Amino acid sequence: MEVKREPLREVSDLRIRQHQARDLLRGDMDDEELERYVEERVLTTTLDKAVGWAQGNSIYPLTFGLACCAIEMMSIVGARLDIARFGFEAFRASPRQADLIILSGRVSIKMAPVIRRIWDQMLEPKWAISMGACCSSTGVFNNYALVPADKFMPVEIHVPGCPPRPEALMHGILRLRDKIQGHGVEGWRERYAAKGTEELLPEQADLATANVNVFKAGDTAGA
Amino acid sequence: MTVTGRGTGSETSTTLTEDYRKREESITLSSQPAGVDETHELLTLNIGPHHPATHGVLRLIATLEGEVVRDIKPIIGYLHTGIEKTAEDKSYWKVIPVVERMDYLSYYFNAMAFCGAVETLLGLEVPPRAQYLRVIHLELNRIMSHLVWLGTSAVDLGAISMFWYCFRERETVLDLFEMSSGQRMHTRYIQVGGVFEDIPLGFAEKLRQFLKLMPTRADQYADLLEKNQILLQRLRDTGIVDRDTLIKLGVTGPLLRAAGEPWDLRKAHPYSSYDHFDFKVPIGTVGDNYDRFRVRHAEFYESVKIIEQALDGLPEGPFITPDRKVALPPRHELATSMEALIHHFKLVTEGFRVPPGEAYYPIEAARGELGCFVRADGSAKPARVHMRDPSFVNLQALAPMVRDGYIADLIATLAMLDPVLGGIDR
After folding, report:
1. How many separate domains does chain B show?
2. Rounded to the nearest 10 degrees, how much is the dihedral formed by the CA atoms of A190, A193, A199, A204?
3. How many structural domains does chain A have?
4. ipTM for the complex?
5. Least C-beta-crowded within 10 Å: which of A186, B200, B374, B403?
6. What are the 10-residue block averages of pLDDT along chain B, 426 residues in total?
7. Which domain holds residue B219?
8. What is the CATH classification number for the domain harbouring A72?
9. Is residue A96 part of a domain?
10. Residues 32-91 of A with CB under 8 A from B
11. B140, B203 contact by CB (below 8 A)
């Protein structure tokens, strides 16, 4: 293999940079100069992209099954679809360690507060996929017992089907990855100008407001 | 519950909510004082409803003395879907997809129980080919259900590779389901009067490949698990309940057979021409978790044998009853026959009417006796549909199984109990 050496274009610029770096390390830089130096070198967008790339490729789903869809959710871990190809195979049993909750099945009114609590217990950044017709729209049942997931928690992706094929869920997770990596909108976070949700103890919660545990973008608490 | 007054809507709903809360709080979750004194301290531990070892959204209140379970109370209803009520609002043939979603691992069984009850009420004769096709799919469903049970239970016991092997075979079964009905789960294949469609070309061939494969795979599972000391120690002599207690509790299926009672509705009360086939009913001797595992494992082989016989002796003929009052006419008749068009119109708009009466139709599902009770009032919708789900009844046996055992054995026992919460809560 041939090694190609390109001549330096601006030798003086490189010299200046070297001197600047040396001054910075010695602490010889003035305030104004220092500020300019740092400003020139901060690449926020690139860092966001890097973090998004890392987050999107290592989602830890929560081991959480509700009904029929849970069986199909389990089969994406199986040998045929093998979600480990994308790095999402590490299912976590504790909500504190999980990034993604897949609502796989029908959500009854009795179960909804439990799910909301599990969702609030998860740490930011976190995402939710509503899998199947039942928890997106109560599906074929549409009766007194069920409640769609959007009524009590924010959902990023809805995967249709009854139950969806594992391939469909896989597609949903990959779309979520695209979202996380910055190719999509922020979903409900943008809609509610929120940063995230967090579990609150009843005495801490301001029950007068409807959005009990949704933090605004300016708030520093939690999320 | 009484709702007093005729106030505004909000007042009424508040009363209802308060009443509900009061009733909910009146349920005692306190532990049973089993030999409590100064030296024995009881601890109440909540397991679930979100816990990976509960196989769904089951909640258990366990009373522990150290590591020993003194009492356990299962709390159910976290997956209540109102399926029985929904069924009352749908015409008979639209009920099938709803009841299929009840016990979501035995959808063919659910459909079979419901269709069997309706056929009993109608006095309908199911053609032999349809009966054989039903048997093929029911037994495939049994294999599939046991595969999911084995895979998930083995994960609970620490043998994670079993999960991949079992789900590999499950995909093969689901491919067959998809071939014959177009869906992987909740296929709506069985319908009143027969089955939805005849098996397609190539199905028999693919099924035979699977039947050849499955016994060897089951052998491999046995090789992996039955020489595993960890598994044996966790399953042997744990969760023993004697036969009489199980019968008194109404437990059926592999749990009862593991205790030595050869009760199988396929033999005791044959339906869908199960009496044509030669198969054995595996039973256990001790009634511990190991026997439960062995009985289900042996059922893989028996199911394969039944499917082989059904496939070999598959009779020619129609796959659904020729009674046009119940079954849709073939597509090609619609263009030429006015009568067929009328039947088609009546069926898809109103559905068929069932004469008044009651019927209970029990079948042997993967978890035990699955019975469907249907009461008809003469209209096109059932007046009442009730399912006797085996998981619900079998869950009663959890307390005698785990009492005075270690909490680690509770997980193993629950895995071997194989409850499906969709069937329990309905």
Report:
1. 1
2. -170
3. 1
4. 0.82
5. B200
6. 41 53 58 53 81 82 84 88 91 91 91 93 92 94 94 88 91 93 90 90 93 93 89 89 91 92 90 90 91 93 94 91 87 88 90 92 92 92 92 91 89 90 88
7. 83-393
8. 3.40.50.12280
9. yes
10. 63-68, 70-72, 74-75, 77-80
11. no
